[in-house]
Amino acid sequence: MFNISVFNKQIGKYYLLVATIIVLTLVIQSITQYSLQKQARTAMLINVAGKQRMLGQRVLTNFYECRLLKCNYADMKLGLERLYATNLALQDGDSRLEPLEDPEIQKNFDKLEADINYIHASLQNSESLETISFESLSSAVGRFISVMDTIVSQFQKKSEDDIRTLMIVELELAALSILIILLEIIFIINPAIKKISFQNKKLKEISWHQSHAFNSHIKNIKDLQHVLKIEKNMDYKQELLDCVMDELNNLEQVSKNMINSLESHED
Q1: Are residues 140 and 206 in the same domain?
Q2: Are 92 and 123 in contact (CB under 8 A)?
């Protein structure tokens, strides 16, 4: 027998359990999605920074070709503008990249300022290529590449630190989720199950005892009814009717006792 009232008293706790699990799942999923998006943005940032280093080498190579061999100055100019624009995008952000917020990385970008301005200004005019010093330009590009190597390493380290932090947060949330679920199992689910099992056991005992008493009075009433049918003496019939009424009163009392027992064991 299932006690509906006991279930109704516990249903609020079950809703709390379900709501807690849903909230924790949503939080963990949100952090996971944020982590994936952050990793994707960081990977793009590292990729762009790595290409920036290669652009510096390409500009220097194009310069050598234009000074010593024939070259397409438009290609060198395009690479030069990309080098300058990407340097700004890595610091200020654009449609793909977020603005730089790390002060240590920004310090290295500040170190690049003089060299990248020198490279950009020196190669702007194709007619002045003959006057540019190999040594000065090569030194500027070399410093640029060296600092960009450092910046790429810093981006990679920052990415690893961010991933490590997010992993720790995810693990802490997972541990917290398990702890909350265990506590709810211990303090909500198990007590509810035990209470329902105890109620069912008691109700079965009550049902068994009351049904025997009920059946006993019903049997007595049927026997008295049979005797009433064959009894002719009115005085005896009256006594039999009194006995029937007593049995009916006893039967009513059994019914009341059953109801009272059910109500007392629901609390």
Answers
A1: no
A2: no
